[in-house]
Write a structure and sequence with these properties.
- The complex is a heterodimer of chains A (115) and B (112).
- Chain A contains no helices and eleven strands.
- Chain A has 115 residues and is mostly beta strands.
- The relative contact order of chain A is 0.33.
- Chain B is globular.
- The chains are: A mainly beta (115), B mainly beta (112).
- At the A-B interface, strand 4, strand 5, strand 9 and strand 10 of A face strand 4, strand 5, strand 9 and strand 10 of B.
Chain lengths: 115, 112
Amino acid sequence: GAGVSQTPSNKVTEKGKYVELRCDPISGHTALYWYRQSLGQGPEFLIYFQGTGAADDSGLPNDRFFAVRPEGSVSTLKIQRTERGDSAVYLCASSRSTGYKNEQFFGPGTRLTVL
Amino acid sequence: SQQGEEDPQALSIQEGENATMNCSYKTSINNLQWYRQNSGRGLVHLILIRSNEREKHSGRLRVTLDTSKKSSSLLITASRAADTASYFCATGRGGSQGNLIFGKGTKLSVKP
């Protein structure tokens, strides 16, 4: 079956603009995660959803970042007033559920460049 | 914040040799997982070891976990050029806390 897909694969924007990044999880996976990875670093957790609700958004760096998952499937990460420091690869992952097994399947990522 | 610290940061070996990567972490965990990443994009799950397990095998991979030392190792035997990638350990606390905490990774280069 299809894996996790993310669009766009690359996004170049100007400082101050608004961007939306989309994630399509594996069908039937109830948990969805967003991570951000800067060059030379491991992924850093941003937010995760169990169903439609954000179960943990403690990783969002500030209130310019927001994510939704209105129907419990596709999720959109929204960044307002982008800054150069937001440049990174944004990774989405999904898993069958949360819990001890918690194997997460990652998408290819969206590379965001803020000029 | 990052939990794990992989060691070494970079490793270069010849094809056929074994590669060992280590990971240390700070807080209590429910499980520890290893992921591989090619070209700075999507991660591929390799293996998960639970906190009550000490060793696990999957093909050419062997993972050990020492919870008393808060450390884990990943051994890749008979390495191949295709194993060239970055390897990350990630810790999961389980239960309702679903997110993984990743280390900075080990960049492995396998020369043919």
